[in-house]
Design a protein that fits this description.
Radius of gyration: 15 Å
Mean pLDDT: 84
Order of helices and strands: HHHHHHHHH
Number of domains: 1
Strand content: under 5%
Low-confidence stretches: 76-90
Number of strands: 0
Length: 156
């Protein structure tokens, strides 16, 4: 049974939606935004995930504005970076849903907590390749990508 945290696929999709859209808005890499939300401020687990029930009913701009306000309170840098890399892959929402599925399946395959799987995904070599559409990796099946991610995780 899934819970209310990142082990719930719907909450994972929402977290990925927030990370990816903040990255696009701020012209930063998603791994940078993930680090700001998860590592530097703990806002992902202390605010975004627990606020899912309320936040997911709001429009995208409200959600992003709200998270940026929370980041400012926590003193996380939210200045827009230089050199935006707009994805050259499928529609952002489809990509975000794929990323969430990959993280969820990876966590199950490796029998690790969803939070650990998400952290590994955003710091993996595959994350930017998927986002940037390198070698059409984003067109591969979820299982193919999960297997590749698992090999990287195990160091093989």
């Amino acid at each position: 049974m899934t819970g209310t945290g990142l082990d719930n696929p719907t909450v994972m999709e929402f977290a990925v939606f927030c990370i990816e859209n903040l990255a696009k808005r701020q012209h930063k890499g998603a791994e940078t935004v993930y680090a700001e939300l998860a590592d530097k401020s703990d806002l992902l687990s202390s605010y975004v995930v627990p606020s899912y029930d309320f936040l997911h009913t709001q429009d995208k701009e409200y959600i992003l504005d709200d998270i940026e306000r929370a980041m400012a309170v926590k003193a996380v840098a939210t200045l827009h970076g230089e050199g935006s890399k707009d994805p050259v892959i499928a529609a952002p929402t489809l990509s975000q849903m794929k990323f969430a599925r990959i993280v969820t399946k990876f966590a199950a395959k490796e029998k690790i907590p969803a939070e650990e799987a998400q952290r590994f995904f955003y710091y993996s070599r595959l994350s930017p390749l998927l986002r940037d559409g390198v070698a059409d990796l984003h067109c591969m099946s979820d299982e193919y990508i999960v297997d590749d991610l698992a090999r990287e995780y195990k160091g093989t």
